[in-house]
Specification:
Elements: E1 3-7, H1 19-27, E2 30-33, H2 36-45, E3 52-54, H3 60-71, E4 76-79, H4 91-100, E5 104-108, H5 113-121, E6 128-133, H6 138-147, E7 154-159, H7 164-175, E8 180-184, E9 192-196, H8 198-207, E10 214-218, H9 230-242, H10 247-258, H11 262-273
Parallel strand pairs: 1-4, 1-5, 2-3, 2-4, 6-7
Antiparallel strand pairs: 7-10, 8-9, 8-10
Length: 274
Amino acid sequence: MGTLYLVGTPIGNLEDISPRALRTLREVSLIAAEDTRVTRYLLRHFDIRTRLTSYHEHNKHVKLPLLLTHLGEQDVALVSDAGMPGLSDPGYELVQAAIEQQIVIVPVPGPSAVITALVVSGLPSDEFTYLGFLPRRRAARRQVLERVSHEARTLICYEAPHRLLATLGDVQQVLGGRPMAVARELTKLYEDIQRGTPAELIHHFDQHPPKGEITVIIAGAPPEQPGWSDEAVAAEIHRRVAEGESLSAAARAVAEISGRPRRQVYRLGLQARD
């Protein structure tokens, strides 16, 4: 029976691949890749001529039994486009199936955008919650953010460049003005890490439209502030509105000074007004 190797590959800089990963890719009889075009570039760079096959979300039902059959006799290396396979790709399903068939599984660790972004963000790294890719639709995305709004651990997710501004806006609305970071093109030539509040990052990326692979890191929920109960928030909004501020402006200001999510503050303001 063969062995399934889970091989970490560079998230950008090819120099980050390990000698062990290169040896493994040379010695196995088959490499299962998320995108064969991406992996073929890596193999050519290091003059590795191992046979390549695709294994991704759209063909996993067809390829999974074929890979298990191959593993019945020979070794297979599983790779993703970048980083460790099995995170936000169908690799975990192959791992589950291999476990059921008592196939030996050997991890060959490598770079990870999640961990790399976390440690460079400057946010607490002792505990974190990985959210994968946030939903594309705004309503679903906000539901996810609402679900983790009380999570004290640092939050990490991936995002596409064309959705980043919308996601930052949702973070501001649902989670408030928390510290956060946006890590872009990690380990590549144009690596860029921006830190700040959602409002500051929205201003930056509105002026500098983002490109490339993006990881978003958001501080966890702050400890409850005893001076900012629901009643205190509602009273401050009422005071500001009475002095002439709009409800929206008052909610934005109170959210900033209280550390509570703007959407939550606005809801309390509506209740107080009614």
